[in-house]
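[agent] plan:
  1. take the single chain provided in the ticket
  2. run structure prediction with default settings
  3. attach structure tokens to the ticket
  4. add a short note for the reviewer (M.T.)
[agent] executing step 1
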Amino acid sequence: MNDKEYLDQFENKMRQDLLHICTSSHMLEGVLLSSEDIDEHWMKLAPEYLADAVRLVQDYPTVSLAWAAYLGLAMAYGWDMNWEVFSKAEYTFFYGERGFDDMDEHIVKDILGMPLEGEETVELEEVIRRCAQSAIQRIRHEQIEPQSKMAYHVFIRSCAVMYSIGAALGLKKLGYKLEKVDMSELNTPGKEYLN
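[agent] step 2 finished; step 3 output follows
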């Protein structure tokens, strides 16, 4: 198996594991909701996010992954509220008062409009923490040499999965769901669409 196949397999397995955590917590319904706009926007945010996260991974591994989910949540809200504005926002727009360190609180309070001590916030924080801890366990289970090129690629893939989990949680919270649409009038087979 080459490196790309290994990384693809690692990413897919992690995605399934984290989806299972979110589903068993009743935060998702067995489907990873997504939008092409939100998914593709990760590529714009990833370089700066990874620069922040990598410096913390040694001392705060959970935070270095979990904040990617909060970024995905923010982008889901931005996609629903005003994608024209959110898609142009600089990465630092998502920083809290202490920069990267309190990004989660800034996103929850100022972007999502949720009280920091609210029950919904606590539930969201719990599922994101559980996902990040599961991701870290999976990374450690792989026994990849620390600070190697492969370790960095695994970390990048893990952050991308956490971002997509956060986006899915945000879309679900906003009331989106996948529905089968009958396309018979267009002579096209049925397809699932985000609604």
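[agent] step 4 note for reviewer: DSSP finds six helices and two strands in the chain.
[agent] ticket updated
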